[in-house]
Amino acid sequence: MKGSVRGPSGRGGAAGFTLVELMVTVAVIGILTVVAVPAMTGLINNSRISGLSGEVVSAVQLARSEAVRRNARVTLCASGDGATCSDSADWSRWIVQAPDNTSGGTDVVLDGTAPGNAQVSGPAGRIVFRPSGLVVSQAQLTVCVPTTNPANNQRVVAVVLSGSPVTTRANGAGACP
């Protein structure tokens, strides 16, 4: 008979998987999924926290360098509209303001926002950099994602008197300040 398939036993039949083989494969895929999903969630959340804290550190460094470059006071502050500073402790949107030497007003050098449920909190005021690059007073910004995976769900960006940012990890127990 041409076209018939013979198995190892010599009997004819269709080639394929048995029900037991298929169930074992599905069980293995299910176990791998149960193990991999929490680890992947923690990895994604950790990347979100690190990325956002990197953006905040970049804003601090930009404000400091603009103060030195322009030889003027430059402000890093919370903003509600992306154009003016607000006296809010919610820094989910922040701007870097510098004096505009041509018009005499101010120029928004940077407008940053925290994505999704990520939060940034800080002083209910401004971080002002002097023309020397030093800050008027030390400040602390906290970047947070409300989750327990990873345990260190916060990054604290401290702006020391020299104007340099120092980042540390903190365990917020799944909550944000």
From TrEMBL:
Residues spanning the membrane: 12-40
Membrane topology note: Single-pass membrane protein
Matches recorded under PROSITE patterns: PROKAR_NTER_METHYL
Top-level taxon of origin: Bacteria
All copies of domain General secretion pathway GspH, residue ranges: 55-163
Keyword Protein biosynthesis: no
A Pfam family assignment: N_methyl
Keywords tagged on the record: Cell inner membrane, Cell membrane, Membrane, Methylation, Transmembrane, Transmembrane helix
InterPro entries: N_methyl_site (IPR012902), Pilin-like (IPR045584), T2SS_GspH (IPR022346)
Record localization: Cell inner membrane
Family of the protein in this entry: Belongs to the GSP H family.
Protein name according to UniProt: Type II secretion system protein H
